[in-house]
Automatic annotation (TrEMBL):
Protein name per UniProt: Tyrosine recombinase XerC
Keywords: Cell cycle, Cell division, Chromosome partition, Cytoplasm, DNA integration, DNA recombination, DNA-binding
Compartment(s): Cytoplasm
Domain Tyr recombinase: 104-287
Length: 293
């Protein structure tokens, strides 16, 4: 049933490869634990006591509450699958509570910092320079995820409608508008890329120095290096630019539902975390401007 479960979340639920790998790791870890501690090698026979014992062992080992909760969620998904298939009657995770976690506000760069980088820094005009600027412009200008960025193909750029097509989580497609300057930069980059590596309409938009598909660490290094020059934000990653995109939109009065759609969130709950940053800015303005503040 474990193999059937992984096929189910991969092909029917369309979970990402990273999520499937996490589920596989979590279930394997739990299987090993109950086998060693309770001499039980069948996940379908696990009890609530076994699950709670595993959670306690994770906590004793110093595992973060966020990671423990993710592992509990993996088990819950599996046991819901078993119940749905009629393999078990009771879910051993049903009464296992999630741990309390500290909600960290998303880390984002200041607006002036990004303007200084993108408008005043002199990127080189060769292939590498254009690629560096395009990576930062795309992440900040569209809010796409790292995996979505490296998955972009030349054919995903619609120059006529000034938009790009993104394949997000669970293979959900969304269309994001792009500004004229970014569209112009994409055209410059593509021309230089085609000059260096040759043209292919189905090729990946971002490639490494050998013309192969860009990889996550390459993008992370580029973003980290350039943000490190201008930004004081603690996290200098591609995801920080996604947070920056959402925060700056909301600070300028963008509709929360519109930001949700741009980010590709399935519900408003995931998007609402950015309203805390906007609220902090409003408090700052209030403190500075109101006579009774």
């Amino acid at each position: 049933m474990v193999d059937s479960f992984f096929k189910y979340i991969s092909f029917e639920k369309r979970y990402s490869k990273h999520t499937v790998i996490s589920y596989q790791s979590d279930l394997a870890q739990f299987t090993n634990y109950i086998s060693e501690q309770f001499k039980c090698s069948d996940l379908s026979l696990a009890t609530q006591i076994m699950v709670r014992s595993w959670v306690l062992s994770l906590m004793d080992a110093g595992t973060s509450p966020r990671t423990v909760n993710r592992k509990i969620a993996s088990l819950r998904s599996y046991y819901k699958f078993l119940i749905k298939r009629g393999e078990i009657e009771k879910d051993p995770t049903a009464k296992v509570r999630l741990l309390k976690t500290q909600k960290d506000l998303p880390s984002f760069a200041d607006e002036k910092e990004l303007v200084n980088l993108l408008d005043r820094f002199e990127f080189t005009h060769d292939f590498e320079g254009l690629r560096q600027k395009l990576i930062i412009e795309l992440l900040y200008g569209t809010g796409i995820r790292l995996s979505e960025l490296i998955g972009l193909k030349d054919s995903d750029i619609n120059h006529y409608e000034s938009a790009l097509k993104v394949l997000g989580k669970r293979n959900k497609e969304r269309v994001i508008p792009i500004a004229a300057p970014l569209l112009s930069l994409i055209a410059q980059y593509k021309a230089e890329k085609n000059h260096v590596f040759g043209g292919n309409p189905n090729a990946f938009l971002l490639v490494n120095n050998k013309g192969d598909k860009a990889y996550p660490m390459m993008v992370y290094r580029i973003v980290n290096n350039f943000l490190d020059m201008v930004s004081s934000t603690e996290k200098k990653s591609p995801h920080a630019l996604r947070h920056t995109f959402a925060t700056h939109l909301l600070n300028k009065g963008a509709d929360l539902n519109a930001v949700k759609d741009l980010l590709g969130h399935s519900s408003l709950a995931a998007t609402q975390v950015y309203t805390h940053n906007s609220l902090e800015k409003l408090k700052s303005i209030f403190d500075q401007a109101h006579p009774k503040a």
